[in-house]
Amino acid sequence: MVAPPRPGLVDAAARRAGGLLVGREREIAVLTDAISSGVRSCVVLGATGMGKSALLSIASSIAVRSGLRPVRGLRAQAGADSRTVLVVDDVERLSGEETERLARFRGAVLVAGDCDPDTLPVVDAVRVPVGPVGAPAVAELLRRRCGAEVSPELTQLCFEFSGGAPGVLSDVLDVVADVSVSSLRALLPGLRLPRLLRAVRRSWEALDADAVAVARALSVLGTASLDVLGEVAGTGSFRTLAAFERLVDARLARGEPMRVRSPALRHAIRHEMAPEPRELLHRAAAEVMHRRSDPPAAVAEHVVACAEPLKASWVAPLLLGAARLHRAAGRPEHAVRCLRAAVREPLDAGVAGEVAVAMAELHLRCGIAPRAGELARQRPLARAWVDAVVLDWQCDEDVLSLGETPVVPPDPERVLRSLPPSGPVVPSLALAGLALLRTGSEHVLLELAPLVRPRLVGAEQDWLTAWVMWAHRARGDHAEVSRLLGELAGASPSRGCAALGAAAFVASCVDARRPGDAREVLVRLGYTGTLPPAWTCDLLLHQRARMHLALGSPRAAVADAERAGATEVVEQARAALSRPARPVRPAAWDELTPHESRIVLLALQGRTNREIAERFGVTRRAVELHLTRVYRKAGIGRRVQLSSVFGSG
């Protein structure tokens, strides 16, 4: 009598399978009944990624606990007896010789594969079809892999992309580090999953040329009607329908509407193609869909996917319309792709000007980083808009080369009160604020900000925020300056308003005797090295020099102050250089013994341990022990960190 499987065996095997068997309770029960109630063959059938191999492992475990001896590989048939169970995975890959060996085996077999079961030489087998799992099973698989509950949005995204194939989802989770909705939406179309790519190439070996052509066209189109699919694939309606039915039989496609079985499989088919034939399909799709008056955004998707321009007069106006739709729908990254594709196409003067303005608005309103080459071409078409972009992104050295010396207005208050209702506002706002700062009239910004802000959008609001930070700094309100810095957290450090806000925060920190906070922010924003020669960066360099001086680093202060033209700070820093080094953090120095303080001062001057030992007539080991105690007291681990705690002289 064959022993039944031990309780808990299936659960343990499922845990070892990494969650791939979530939602497979019915299939596991069928395998358990077939194996534990008597030695019977089992055939696990399903498409790629459905977890057939995991079920085969479960079946092998059940066989072992039932007193049977699973044997993998068709070459290991010698010595087989009534207790031997032959285990064969990926049976569709067997060669003719291996298939004959399988047919000659007279015992029970456990087989898994993606094939027609009637072609297998397995007699009286229990068939276990494996289909997609549902959304609850996908949620459970995600929870096990992530170690936490996941949102319904993430579950739905993974379920739709994988088509309910747990193996495909497992492959995705193996290569994606950030499992979040926003990250996955961006990464999924570009993922190359080896399992699916191999499955696609095996399918092409079994399908005819028409089916392959239709599958590739369908992977580019996403969903399509029969006539559109036939036009893009280059096959007639009858041939297209017959080929599509063969794809359905091969579990590669499904109907109503006609589409590839899952987005993951669709992307795998696209990745399997070389770039040239894929682009030809995108061009054909764009032309067919435009001729049928399909929505501009759908047509633009195929135009943007082409590396070379279509060179047709209808393309640029269509891309411009699609960009406006994307921007209105809150998809600026899609909008800028359409506009950049439009620039490559034939443009008349009117459309070219509209494209230039639309792209400049995306840079200013949505924070899309500009490209210097594009701005140079667009300046003659929309000079005021392009100049506003250059000023806004003046900390980008490539863009800065297109800029000009700023001219501050003589009456900045009037400029702020009469900002234009349309057109680029950034230059007027930025230069008016600069004029108020130079005259010490920052308080005017606090008076006008409530009146001006409702009329501003995008970069305009960021510039106003930065200037208001300077106004609060002048009033000594460091808490408000810190709060407003958080409102600029999303601004790129390459934008002038970000550097302007950082300069205001550094100035406020130095005023409040908190230079360490300023240094942390500059490190986070990447403003610690050389800065571009922009006027906002000059302001930042001036305040950074004051910060270095407050931190006890007069040499760094001299370098920054000289570049910024801050003569007063240069004089203060040079005077500090002429004085003996003094501790700039009394609390840290107070924890040291007098001898430790003398050793730290010499170390800050660049003396080696040997030189310090000779100075005091002790061994180098003694100096090392003293420094180790200093590190422990200061909460640091290396000699190079001494200057960050005690100053660098």
Summarize the structure.
With 649 residues, this protein is mainly α. It is 61% helix and 5% strand.
Describe what this molecule looks like in 3D.
With 649 residues, the chain is mainly alpha-helical. The chain is 61% helix and 5% strand. It contains 36 helices and 8 strands. The strands form 2 sheets. The protein has a 5-stranded parallel beta sheet, with helices on one face. The chain has a 3-stranded antiparallel beta sheet with strand order 6-8-7. It is flat, with a radius of gyration of 35 Å. The model is unreliable at 1-10 (pLDDT under 50).
Given the structure, what is the number of helices?
36
Placed side by side, the strands forming the largest sheet appear as 2-3-4-1-5
Question: Strand content of the residues, in percent?
Answer: under 5%
State the total count of DSSP E strands.
8
Question: Roughly how many Å apart are the termini?
Answer: 87 Å
- The helix content, as a percent range, equals 55-70%
Shape: flat
| Overall average residue pLDDT | 87
Low-confidence stretches: 1-10
Structural class: mainly alpha
Using only C-alpha atoms, the radius of gyration works out to: 35 Å
The biggest beta sheet, please? Answer: 5 strands, parallel
